[in-house]
Amino acid sequence: MSDLVRLSAAELASALAAGDVSSVEVTRAHLDRIGAVDSAVHAFLHVDPVGALAQAAAADARRADDDDFPELLGVPVAVKDILTTKGLPTTAGSRILDGWAPPYDATVVTRLRKGGQPILGKTNMDEFAMGSSTEHSAFGPSHNPWDLDRIPGGSGGGSAAAVSAFEAPLAIGTDTGGSIRQPGAVTGTVGVKPTYGGVSRYGLIALASSLDQAGPVARTVLDAALLHDVIGGHDPLDSTSIDTQWPSMAAAARAGDVAGLRVGVVKELGGEGYQVGVQARFEETLTLLVDAGAELVEVSCPHFELALAAYYLILPSEASSNLAKFDAMRYGMRVAPEGVALPSAEEVMRATREAGFGDEVKRRIILGTFALSSGYYDAYYGQAQKVRTLISRDFEAAFAQADVLVSPTAPTTAFRIGEKVDDPLAMYLNDIATIPANLAGVPGMSLPSGLAREDGLPTGFQILAPALQDARLYAVGAALEAMLVDRWGGPLLDMAPELTVED
Question: Is residue 315 assigned to a domain?
C-alpha cells in the first residue's frame, strides 16, 4: 500500500501545498488502492479514473498558477451514488436508474469541483438509501474492511468503507436516520450529519425530503471539518437551505476544548439492548471527558423512545411520494409487460417498478402509501408528526441543561452479512440512537470510541449539538479525538487488520 493513502486529508493538503507531491500522484495512489482491494470491499459502484486524473492535473495547474487556492485543492474524494454527477452514472443503488447519467451536478458536487477536488467515483449504498447495512443495494453489498464478512453500515456503507479501507481520504454521505453516523461507528471512521438545511440538498435524489442531509465522511474530525467547509453554506437552488453566515468548522476543530463543557448523557440512549462492549467503550469515553474538565449531566428525553415508530411512518410516507416520479416515462428503466401487445402507460409503469425496485423499497412504498391514505392519515402520519414535535421539545429541554448531548452511535458493532437482512425490524433498530437528530434537524457526529472487547470491532461515540451549532460538534469532537488517539497510541484505523484480497 502506498504511504500516500495512509495520510489524512489535512496531511495531504499540507504535502500538496509544500510541493512535496502532486495531486496526480495522490489521485493515482488512491485509484491503485481501489484497484487492489475494492473487488473485496465493493465500496464503489463506479470508478472514474480518466475523469479523476484529469481533475487532478487541473488542480496541479491551478496551484502552479495561483497562490490563493482552497485548502483541499487536489485532495480526492468519493461521492455517494445518491448525488447527481453530470455525465457519471447515478443509480441510488437501484436497478431502476441503472446506467442513468444525469445532465447536471448536485450543488455538493459543484462545490467539490469548484474546490478542485478530484472525484474518484460513486460509492455503493442501500437502494434509495433504504437500509442500515448496504445489503439492500441492487448491485450487491459492501463489506466492512475490519472484517469482510460483516456489514459496513448503511445506507452509506460504501462511503464509510472506502474511507476505512484507505481507498479515499474523504467521502460524501447522506444521513436520513443515521446513514452517515451509523456506518462511521461500525467502520471506525468519522461521520457528520449537519444541521438540516446546512448543506444543500439540490441534486440529492430524495428519500424523505424533511429528513435527508448530505455530510462529510472522513478518518479524522479535522478532515470532516475541512470537507464540511467546502460543501456547506446557503444554496438558493434549495428551498430548505438556511441563509446564514456559517463559521469555519475547521477553525473550530483546530481550537477544540472541553474544559467547562456540560455534557448531557441521554438516559434513553443506552443501557439495556446495547452490546456490552459498545456500552463499555462509551462509559470509558465519558471518563476521558470528565478527566479533561467536562461536567456530566444526565438528561431525560422521554419521547425518544417513540422516535423509531414515528420515523418509520414519516420516512415511508415521504418516500412513497418522492419515488412516484420513477414511472418509466421520463428517465431510467422501462420494462414492457409480457404478453401485452399494446400496453397502457399504467401497465408499463407497473412492470417497470416491479422489475426495478427491490423488496425493501417496495415494502416502504406500500407502508407509506397506506399511512397517507384516506381514513388513515390522521391516525398514522399525523400522529407521527405530533411525536416529532415532542422530540424537538425534548431536545430543547435537554440543551437547556447541557451544551452537547452524547450516546453510543449504534447499539452494536457490525453484524454479519445476511444476519438481519430478512428481519426488517431488527435492521431498523440499528438506527435507534441516531434517528432523533434527523427528526429534530439538529447536527450530530460519530467518532470512533475504541474496539469492543468481545469481537475487536469498532464502536462509535455520538455527539449532538443544537441546530446551527455544528461548529460546537467539531470543537468537542476534535478535543475528544485527541484524547482517544493518545490513549490508543495512534489512530484506531492503524489497528485494523490488513486487507487480503483473493485473486
Answer: no
